[in-house]
Amino acid sequence: MSDETTVTLDQLSCGCSAVIVRVGGDRALRRRLLDMGFVHGETVTLTRLAPLGDPLELTIKGYHLSLRKSDARCIYVEPINALT
């Protein structure tokens, strides 16, 4: 994992995709995020933002879900365009 290209999920721009490199947070939050499909190596796309910027709408594993920005800050990703 390169610290230069790693950002948290809440820092992605709308329409951007990224690969998950680490899921943090307390034990309960981490377990919930992993159960929702936020696992190492999975691709996630930020598809839309709510009018006030929270929550985020994401696409992962072929389904859409909403996630609070505070929870998205626990997911570390590498944007796809930074991998090339």
TrEMBL record:
Q: Name one GO molecular function term.
A: transition metal ion binding
The UniProt record lists the keyword Secreted: no
List UniProt keywords, sorted A-Z: Iron
Superkingdom in the source lineage: Bacteria
Q: Which Pfam families match?
A: FeoA (PF04023)
Q: Give the Ferrous iron transporter FeoA-like domain ranges.
A: 7-79
Identify the PANTHER family for this entry: FE(2+) TRANSPORT PROTEIN A (PTHR42954:SF2)
Protein name, please?
FeoA family protein
Q: What is the lineage of its organism?
A: Bacteria, Bacillati, Chloroflexota, Chloroflexia, Chloroflexales
